Input
Amino acid sequence: MTPNPAPPLLHATGITMRFGGLTAVRAVDLTVHPDEILGLIGPNGAGKTTLFNCLTGLYTPDEGTITYAGKPLPTRPHLVTRIGIARTFQNIRLFPNMTVLENVLVGRHTRTHEGLLSALLRTPAHHRAEHTSRQHATELLEFTGLTRKSDHLARNLPYGEQRKLEIARALASEPGLLLLDEPTAGMNPQETRATEHLVHAIRARGTAVLVIEHDMRFIFNLCDRVAVLVQGQKLTEGTPTTVQADPRVIAAYLGTPEEDPR
Ligand SMILES: Nc1ncnc2c1ncn2[C@@H]1O[C@H](COP(=O)(O)OP(=O)(O)OP(=O)(O)O)[C@@H](O)[C@H]1O
Output
């Protein structure tokens, strides 16, 4: 008997999301496998962020089903985080007046179970949980290269490091799947390259990644598979090589074949 193949980590079928008369996402199927890096590309307004919002409980799709690790996706964002899906946002959403370390500790709260009373009474259980959280946050700052900035206020970090901090904070919830919405927006080529390495390292830790990005070079270097959304519908998906060579993608998104698809 052949063993069952590993079930998909995230499985979305027939996702449709409307805003009044506008259908932003139409009957989209999307699957992310464990340990996979999947890219989601498409022209402006194609519905990429709307789909992310459906996958993270910010929106409830009008149609379709989503499962994570075989179970239906909860309908509230914090519960989605708790079951193992974390995300970053297109517009950075840090706590600007908290330190870098504190921002990561905030991201950890879905993994701590100590109640308010325990915190107020400063029980031994609370101290242990706090110690573990700090250790984990410190390790994540090292992992993302932000150790030296641990005590800096988030608002004083350069833009590229703020994006890294968002990723560190998302990782603090120990996700099985990380969704990145335009992680290299506003970065210089060196920072973009560093982000590519960071995403590979995240996958090596056992976290699958779904990433929206307009930088084609980044996407095609990074991803195992790429899905293409156009006007709310999935045009195609496949390996970077297949997608890059698909004339429909070139026509819809990448410009004419003569252009450098960057
Ligand atoms: N909250 C909303 N209310 C109404 N319309 C919305 C809302 N969010 C998105 N839209 C519309 O849905 C469509 C898809 O938008 P979305 O932001 O998902 O696209 P996108 O592919 O992420 O675009 P971009 O690459 O520019 O970020 C657009 O026409 C957008 O104007």
Residues 19, 22, 24, 42, 44-50 surround adenosine-5'-triphosphate (CB under 6 Å). The first strand starts at residue 10 and ends at 19. The chain has two domains: 1-84+175-262, 94-160. The beta strands are 10-19, 22-32, 37-41, 63-68, 71-72, 85-87, 177-181, 208-212, 225-230, 233-238.
